[in-house]
Amino acid sequence: MKDRKVVHQWKRIALIEERVELPNGKQITHTTIAHPGAAVILPIDSNGNIVFINQYRPSLRKWLLELPAGTLEADEPIDVCALRELEEETGYSANEIYPLGQVTPLAGFCDEIQHLFVAKGLSKTSRYQCDDDEVIEVLHISLAEVEQMIINGTISDAKSIACLSKAKLCGFI
Known about the structure:
alpha+beta; Nucleoside Triphosphate Pyrophosphohydrolase; 2 domains; three-stranded antiparallel sheet; 43% strand
């Protein structure tokens, strides 16, 4: 095996197998999902509700209630990605966007970094276009309902829970 081999490529995501030297000097073969990164957006409407999407996830074969999010395009600034994904998945644009930092959701086997944002000053736009593999419905849910849905397991999406937690800790909600 070469030092780095692309086992499979899909869009901008790749399965990579490579030789890695660990900090203790041991050499291993490690398989990583190489991901360009993503933006996760917590949109807050004028009534203080959170705009969620209910999206069918083929990998789980079920609907998942989550915040809008999406993968970075080539050479795209992360805040531009956040605004684009918000509009594509919800049909809303935002006048204000606040970065909340980042999370590493699957560090054991994926190099994806998810950048978290809060979006305010929402305006409905005519643009609402899902990718070919997306089936989405848009919902406005109060914070109290969202928190109860996390407690009872209705919301189980890790990136959404992380973004909501960070936004709450930072005083945005």
